[in-house]
Amino acid sequence: MAATLIHIHPQDNVAVATGPLAAGTTVSVGKIVVSLRQEVRLGDKVAIVPIAEGDAVLKYGLPIGKATTSIQPGEYVHTHNLASNYYPTFDHR
């Protein structure tokens, strides 16, 4: 089975890669079609709609952080453009 993106929850503004996908790959996520701007790996998040700076990034129907810059559809979403809600609450013992 070829790698693709899965949209976990209807409210999510990101989808998750099921395997490696090359930059420029076009993927359908329901009715949404995105062209990947960067290479992504298994488990990576990709924006499927525009996300404005300061907007919540939604995965599993819940906010996982805020965009630190505007994020375009097809962009890889990670710590370079996302302030995680997880890191401030994680105790690194």
What do you see in this structure?
The structure is a single chain. This protein has strands at 5-6, 14-17, 26-29, 32-35, 45-47, 56-59, 62-67, 76-77, 82-84. It has a single domain (5-89), classed as Archaeosine Trna-guanine Transglycosylase, Chain: A, domain 4 (Roll), CATH 2.30.130. Strand 1 (5-6) and strand 2 form a beta hairpin. Helix content is 0%, strand content 34%. The protein is mainly beta and 93 residues long.
The protein's oligomeric status is: single chain
CATH architectural group:
Roll
Structural class: mainly beta
Shape: globular
Strand residue content: 25-35%
Rg (CA only): 13 Å
State the helix count. 0
CATH topology: Archaeosine Trna-guanine Transglycosylase, Chain: A, domain 4
Mean pLDDT: 93
Low-confidence stretches: none
User: How many domains?
Assistant: 1
* Helix content bin: under 10%
Brief rundown of the structure:
With 93 residues, the chain is mainly beta. Helices cover 0% and strands 34% of the residues. It has a single domain (5-89), classed as Roll (Archaeosine Trna-guanine Transglycosylase, Chain: A, domain 4).
Secondary-structure topology with pairs:
Layout: E1 5-6, E2 14-17, E3 26-29, E4 32-35, E5 45-47, E6 56-59, E7 62-67, E8 76-77, E9 82-84
Antiparallel strand pairs: 1-2, 2-5, 3-4, 5-8, 6-7, 7-9
